[in-house]
Design brief:
The complex is a heterotetramer, with 2 copies of chain A (393 residues) and 2 copies of chain B (144 residues).
Chain A: E1 3-4, H1 15-25, H2 37-57, E2 64-67, H3 70-86, E3 92-96, H4 101-112, E4 116-120, H5 130-136, E5 141-145, H6 159-168, E6 172-176, E7 195-199, E8 210-214, H7 229-232, H8 240-255, H9 257-275, E9 281-283, E10 294-299, H10 304-313, E11 316-317, H11 323-326, H12 333-337, H13 342-345, E12 348-352, H14 359-378, H15 381-389
Parallel strand pairs in A: 1-11, 3-4, 3-5, 5-6, 6-7
Antiparallel strand pairs in A: 2-8, 7-8, 9-10, 10-12
Chain B: H1 5-12, E1 25-31, E2 36-45, E3 48-57, H2 60-73, H3 78-81, H4 86-92, H5 101-121, H6 138-142
Antiparallel strand pairs in B: 1-2, 2-3
Classes of the chains: A alpha/beta (393), B alpha+beta (144).
Bound molecules: pyridoxal-5'-phosphate (2 copies).
One pyridoxal-5'-phosphate binds at residues 69-71, 74, 100, 102, 147, 151, 176, 178-179, 199, 201, 210 of chain A.
Chain lengths: 393, 144, 393, 144
């Protein structure tokens, strides 16, 4: 059986999205900035896509700027606000300890350039405290950037409340909503969001396209200078097909949101319950306040890369927070941020579901994991030591 | 990152997995914090490694290098096992991704640690510079 | 008859490129950074695409970094080198007066940040003098950035010679080769190029994907921070389908280069000769030293936007350097840079051909243009004045 | 940027194109450097604009606004023509892109300039503030 359970990494392009893309990959190939009919047809594609994305998020059409993905949107929002606010002498940025690297490496770079960065704790449940945000805001705070939902443990942050606190203090609020858009209901106005990053391939749209929501009135400097595309804010000949695919996928996801959430939540909970039966395992991140498709479990005494490669041999695609899968020496900063010891973090497994996963697939995963864990523990000197320490050997 | 077919073969069905109740030498290197521990057991008769087993906690390449390295010393004189380099293991596996080379170093060290243990237990004299302490040794790191 | 003659703006995706993309838009959708098989299949797509692009350009595979297009590549190269060299106190950049806005607006931004910019003249023929580059290089020159071929008038610059001069003086050399790649033979090593920008949609590849060639050893800082994609140099989940499309299109273009050049040059020259029969017209840019598909002609007394919209009504897609088509008040900076008066620049027409254009299409254009010019001149008070000044009325 | 169907109609087949040998008033505004020149000719009888022609060098919207504006004043009293605003022309064309609004301003000014010329030629008194110099007037700019 083939089971794709790494939807937080990327998703399969939906048939609807592909169909929306095809005209722009074939006949309607004109440059959207050109005046002749072929160009204007492309231009309509761009504008219709922008309007569709805006509609789902409660934004105005002109507040949506297409980018090459979530990473670019994060870089643009954070570096842009930093540049804007530095002119007013504001050089302090508040973020959380478990942001995506697109945010963390960007603020790190700003730190080298003289910004002061506050990394808020995320506690054992993987949720930022609004009170902490409030207390961290200073006179010279330029930006608060807190992700909407975490990519590894799926925990959902109190975005509307964080936004409210920021606005009370007159500070701009950016949220990396790459994992949330298309998966939870979002209203940028009601939720007090000033800037928001998204990426199409996380909701069955194409890779290499995303968007930044930037509230009217924020004069964000450009990250990519050049032609007058995106109303002079983001240069580059428009990849109209990709925008159309993103819009179609988001609309599709949004139309089915309630239904998908119900289905996914049931699958997720079944999977969590099934896997927690394995001895010495634990769920990472808040059990309730998490994305409907996210399961993240640590198994003591095993290493994640081996686990996921044995799973791959069984046809199951998954992900891990072990050091080995990242190519670095340390395991996932997310798992360390919620307080896991290194050796437990190395043994983590993320399974991220989508609405096309089935109960049979879930049961197949539940049947495969324990035997692999047993196999790995049987050859693990770490597991041997743990068992000895617990007096089991 | 990408593994060779050889690595995947040894990972999928590793050779010499197991513990050894009556080992003549045991070596354990690596540490849990870094995500790799290798433990090797050797049985020695007339200066020949007649049997070898390993237990490894770590990634696919840690398991594959353990498997390959134990294969390479089984049936060999102890003195020859001591000469096994990590490069030789990497070559035998048709290469390892750059970020995984440390696993082969670990395998080399695990064998040396097992031999040292065998020498120590049997009062055999040796040149101590053969077994210089390395940053990857478990006991060294555990204190951190 | 429908004639697409705006290939310098964008091209139709080739069938070969589309076919190369389809697997990655459907089944092979995995994340190229993931360890399981589906991810590794995608990873192979990325690496094979990178190798194919490198092979065409004489680069090493690891010297090619995929980007979201030419604009991003230009921004990255120029801002990156600026950041790198500023640390050594080098804050002078040499460019030309007729670069693409992706270069010009980027250096403008750097100027605001304290860099000194030298804009070299391009003379009447639209070609930079190597001697000028040599004379402009100072102790504190950080970068020379001169485009390979101009996007409006198609003139080809003495890239190898400029590179040689830069290397003699120990200065890095970047070239915006967006209009050249796939259209002329390029060898980055033989031509002394340190950094080179390209964009797939200019050679029948998909939009929204491009690349930066960055010579080994140049420690270019990142423009987009985040994940470890592109060997840690450019974050963002890889749009594998787009990379595969770019590689297929470039390989196809390169394989047919000699043949396409011969065909295009003949079509181009036929078109130039046909259009220059119109009274008071002139060819812009060097007649010989130009891209095989580029025709740029000014017609006195008419305005370009009207011209190209009347052409659109005849089924012909073209472009103009008039102010109206850019939304700005001034006509094309390129045409002004080669010395055209404003009113002549407003009356320019760019027709850019590709190998699928035919002689019949060229003849159709040649038959349509004069009657439109006549119609526009008949209602043009400017033409009336010109005729009076010349004693023709 | 996008034109309404109405704009494209008037651009494709503009009304009132031409010169007038015996015009009672001629107005020319705009300048070649900026890419727009409009020249309007009016024929007046008993205070009524009985005929109007235009010549325009400029973009599609310059041609369309000339066409629409001349339509709107033909057969109207001169005094009413003077009241034609650029907004009225824009509305009649179902809108213009923001960057093209200046074309409608030019059309309004061209009509005013033609009427002024008619007044001047015929010694008709008028309130000079009606015809305040504008930055787009050809003669004003030509000197630059
Ligand atoms: C010379 C030149 N440089 C850069 C670009 C920007 O490329 P892209 O629009 O693909 O970002 C273009 C085309 O638009 C170009 O012609
Ligand atoms: C939370 C989060 N932010 C940003 C990104 C970056 O998005 P992309 O890879 O599309 O640039 C991702 C996914 O990779 C993500 O999960």
């Amino acid at each position: 059986m083939q089971v794709y359970a790494d939807n937080a990494a990327t998703t399969k392009l939906s048939e609807t999205a592909l169909q929306a893309m095809m005209p722009y990959l074939t006949d309607t190939f004109g440059n959207a900035s050109s005046l002749y009919s072929l160009g204007q047809d492309a231009h309509h594609g761009v504008q219709a896509s922008r309007a569709a994305v805006a509609a789902v998020l409660g934004a105005d059409t002109n507040e949506i700027y297409f980018t090459s993905g979530g990473s670019e949107a994060d870089n643009w929002a954070i570096k842009g606000v930093a540049e804007l606010m530095a002119k007013k002498g504001k050089k302090h940025i508040i973020t959380s300890a478990f942001e995506h690297h697109a945010v963390l490496h960007t603020v790190k770079k700003l730190e080298e350039q003289g910004f002061r960065i506050t990394y808020l704790p995320v506690y054992e449940n993987g949720i930022v405290k609004v009170e902490d945000v409030k207390n961290a805001i200073c006179e010279d705070t330029a930006l608060v950037t807190i992700m909407y939902a975490n990519n590894e443990i799926g925990t959902i942050q109190p975005v509307a409340e964080i936004g409210a606190v920021c606005h009370e203090k007159g500070v701009l609020f950016h949220t990396d909503a790459v994992q949330a858009v298309g998966h939870v209901a979002i209203d940028v106005k009601a939720q007090n969001i000033d800037l928001m990053s998204m990426s199409a391939h996380k909701f069955h749209g194409p890779k290499g396209i995303g968007a930044l929501y930037c509230k009217k009135g924020i004069r964000l400097p450009n990250l990519i200078e050049g032609g007058a595309q995106e109303r002079g804010r983001r240069a580059g000949t428009e990849a109209v097909y990709a925008m159309a695919g993103m819009a179609a996928a988001l609309t599709e996801a949004n139309d089915a949101l309630a239904q998908n959430t119900a289905k996914l939540t049931a699958l997720r909970d079944r999977l969590i319950d099934g896997l927690l039966k394995v001895e010495s395992s634990r769920l990472n991140g808040d059990r309730q306040n998490r994305l409907p498709g996210n399961v993240n479990i640590s198994f003591e005494g095993v290493e994640g890369e081996s686990l996921l490669l044995y799973l791959d041999m069984k046809g199951i695609s998954a992900s891990s927070g072990s050091a080995c899968t990242s190519g670095s020496l340390d395991p996932s900063h997310v798992l360390l941020a919620i307080g896991l010891p290194h050796e437990v973090a190395h043994g983590s497994l993320r399974l991220s579901l989508c609405e096309s996963n089935t109960e049979e697939e879930i049961d197949y995963i539940i049947s495969c994991v324990p035997e692999i864990i047993e196999r790995l523990r049987n050859m693990s000197p770490l597991w041997e030591r743990i068992q000895k320490e617990r007096g089991n050997l | 990152m990408e593994y060779s077919e050889k690595v995947m073969e040894h990972f999928a069905t590793p050779h010499n997995v197991g513990k050894m109740e009556d080992a003549d030498g045991i070596g354990e290197v690596g540490n849990a914090k870094c995500g790799d521990i290798m433990k090797m057991y050797i049985k020695v008769a007339d200066g020949i490694i007649t049997d070898v087993k390993f237990n490894t906690y770590g990634c696919a390449s840690a398991i594959a290098t353990s498997s390959m390295a134990t294969d390479m010393i089984k049936g060999k004189p102890v003195s020859e096992a001591l000469k096994l380099t990590n490069q030789a293991v990497v070559e035998a596996l048709d290469g390892l991704p750059a970020v995984k080379i440390h696993c082969s170093v670990l395998a080399e060290e695990a064998i040396k640690a097992a031999v040292k243990d065998y020498y120590d237990k049997n009062g055999i004299e040796y040149d101590p510079t053969l077994f210089k302490e390395d940053c990857c040794h478990y006991d060294h790191h555990h204190a951190e």
